[in-house]
Amino acid sequence: RIDGTVTPLGPDIHHVGPALWTDPNPFYDVGYHMMAVDDRFLLYTDGLFEVCAKGQDVFLGQERFSEIVSAHAGDELHAFIDGIIKDLEDIRGGDRFDDDLCLLGMELGSL
Q: 19 exposed, middle or buried (CB, 10 Å; 0-12, 13-18, 19+)?
């Protein structure tokens, strides 16, 4: 949310469905969440919270990733995404990561 509140909508990372296209009959949980004007919705791969600082083998984690997302909540959407990636690059010590990074951000406008 624009006020910096981050609400995880998906299941706990230890209770997720199979990776996309790896199971011919996958089952995924479905959930519903109310959104307000200016709320943002992020879809991202696990590579964003499995970032390790250069020379370390401890993942950033979802809680720290949420803190980074919250820190950029007041930014315009494009700067919001760029700021998240820049912070991850700073933690990593460059723009080379061990896993793929995919982040899609959407912002709800007025209806």
A: exposed
Q: Are 44 and 102 in contact (CB under 8 A)?
A: yes
Residues 6+ apart with CB under 8 A from 77: 40, 105, 107
Where residue 61 falls (left for φ over 0; alpha for ψ -120 to 50; beta otherwise) is left
3-class secondary-structure state, position 46 = helix
Q: Which of 26, 4, 8, 7 is nearest to 17 (CA)?
A: 26
Task: Give, rounded to a whole angstrom, the gap between the first and last alpha carbons of the chain.
Answer: 17
* pLDDT tens digits along 4-55: 778 777 656 556 666 677 878 877 777 778 888 888 888 888 888 888 887 8
> What distances in angstroms separate CA 41 from CA 9, 38, 59, 80, one per listed residue?
9, 10, 23, 12
